[in-house]
Amino acid sequence: MYTFTTHSPAETEALAKQVGGKLRAGDCIAFFGGLGAGKTTFTRGLAAGLGLPDLVSSPTFALVNEYHAEGCISVYHFDMYRVTSPDALESTGFWDYPAEDSVFVIEWAENIAEMLPQSCIRIQIDGNGDQPRTVTVEGDERFADLGC
User: Fold this and answer.
1) pLDDT digits (tens, 9 = 90+) for 31-46
2) Cα angle vertex 146, ends 8, 10, to 5°?
3) Whose CA is closest to 28, among 55, 45, 46?
């Protein structure tokens, strides 16, 4: 487990860009944190770290946003705010996306915690508004040398 503190959205995005640069196809990122914690900001940095030029936005109303670019790993960015059961998860089409060839990013992962793949990289973001953020990354040793 690795813990970092960021003091601005730009620092949060820069940390996430470092994480994104270490991701590989088949990775699943599970975000835990309250409203306004910076999950979408972090996803914007992840996408940049993977080389994706897309404008990242919250998938709140779409349930999933897709980001693709030639020569880059695709990202499927899910919002599970309203998903709280296996049936509800099934209805999103979550299991139909190509997990092995892409990176899954899941906001509100606490709502489907029991249904997450075992190998998910868990990222807890605490703080909101103008407060500093505490970002805790639970995964493998790939994330040991991150820094803001």
Assistant:
1) 998 887 888 889 889 9
2) 20
3) 46
The 3-state DSSP class for residue 125 equals strand
The predicted structure's pLDDT at residue 60: 60
What does DSSP assign to residue 53?
A: -
> Taking the chain, what is the end-to-end CA distance rounded to the nearest angstrom?
16
**Dist CA 13 CA 6 (whole Å):** 9
| Cα gap 55→129, rounded to integer Å | 22
Q: 17: which 2 tokens? A: 């860009």
Q: Which residue has the tokens 């103008």?
A: 130
Residue range 2-138 forms a domain whose CATH class is: alpha beta
pLDDT (tens digit per residue) in 82-125: 888 888 888 888 888 888 889 999 989 998 888 888 889 999 99
Domain range list for the chain: 2-138
Q: Is 133's pLDDT higher than 80? A: yes
- Higher pLDDT pick, 31 / 128: 31
- Dihedral class, residue 5 (left if φ above 0, else alpha if ψ from -120 to 50, else beta): beta
CB 124 within 8 A of CB 113: no
